[in-house]
């Protein structure tokens, strides 16, 4: 059985739900048929034979008593008994033999064997007191041997045996008739079951086909309407999930388009400035050398800006790749931070901002040094850039047994509450006009966030305008691969 099941599972068509439903319905329809056939028809035959045997046995016992009453074993000419015997053999299309204690046949309703001796195991057993025996000869007749007992007040003695064979033809005929009818009904049931299975397996699955069709239509771009197949809760759920997925994809697509247009815009701005500067130099004759120098300085600044945008974009692309690009090593975080702050020292000094580093403990963690340094120096650079003259920036390192945290707080201008949710977006800057003097592309925090997420860490910000900003980064000490 399990072998058949395994073979079925290997068959490609069996993976189709339609085929499975078809099989289930067919089996569900045919099993009752088989049970009915073998259960009822089989029992009918047994039952009919038992009823017939009991009936005949009762009659034979009555006649056996009459044999004693009329002393038939000594004189077989008794009309009453002979009439009863003839009636019995006519009724059941059978033959009755009366055998005396010497195993001699004293009456045969066929009249062939009278006077002959019969040696027959059942008869001898019956004679010895084995009681009545019934034998089924093939399916065509039943033989019933009943002892003829002479009863006195306190004893009984077996004086002969009555052997009756009864034809089963009538039972067989009705059995054959019923079997024929059953066969016809079974064929009919099978046709109905197969038809029903074929129809239902298609009908039940039609909503799933409909949903596939609708998905295909969306896929091939015929429509971008939401799909809705409400026949089943399941199809409705598939539709909802698909619609949500499409929604997310549309959002992604929009953000991609926005990103591309932002990138082009940001890349074009320095180019446009350079063009204006170069054109104005070219359009004038005898330009003084100082003006040349001034314009060329401006052009160099724009080239630097263009360069920074491209470098930042490349970093961002690197940060959005998979964790396979992570170059994880166990590093001394204290040293990384010290080195980073040392590098940023001159920038802070130029802005007249004090850099403070506080470490609560020595931390060693599995990180990608380059990415982590980039992420954290963006935060410190921002804290310096968006600070006040004479302000401070504090970097605090702490750790528990699972995570280490780096907190970058400043005494700067702060971020307006409504801007906080946007600061990680690419090219987002709070105050475009003011930010222009400060310089920047709005990619820094996007890079920081991606780098921290690649470390399976988190970043949080709290800020108050005019007071300052606190960025809190939390990263697992042991790198979690995926
Ligand atoms: N510490 C801070 N204090 C006040 N505003 C901040 C601070 N950090 C970030 N911001 C605001 O968030 C915006 C986004 O910061 P982000 O670092 O992404 O870009 P940026 O600094 O403008 O440019 P860059 O790509 O050069 O870093 C900034 O323009 C600034 O307005
Ligand atoms: Mg920045």
SSE map:
Elements: H1 2-10, H2 17-69, H3 79-91, E1 95-100, E2 105-108, H4 121-130, E3 133-137, E4 141-151, E5 156-167, H5 169-219, H6 233-283, H7 289-319, E6 329-332, H8 333-350, E7 354-359, E8 364-367, H9 369-385, E9 392-399, E10 403-410, H10 432-438, H11 444-454, E11 458-464, E12 468-476
Bound molecules: adenosine-5'-triphosphate and magnesium ion (MG).
- Spatially, the strands of the biggest sheet line up as 2-1-5-4-3
Mean pLDDT: 88
Helical amount: 55-70%
Ligand roster: adenosine-5'-triphosphate, magnesium ion
Strand content: 15-25%
Structural class, by secondary structure, is alpha+beta
Count of distinct structural domains? 3
CATH superfamily of the largest domain: PAS domain
Main sheet characteristics: 5 strands, antiparallel
Give the name of the CATH architecture of the largest domain.
2-Layer Sandwich
Question: Outline, from the CA principal axes?
Answer: rod-shaped
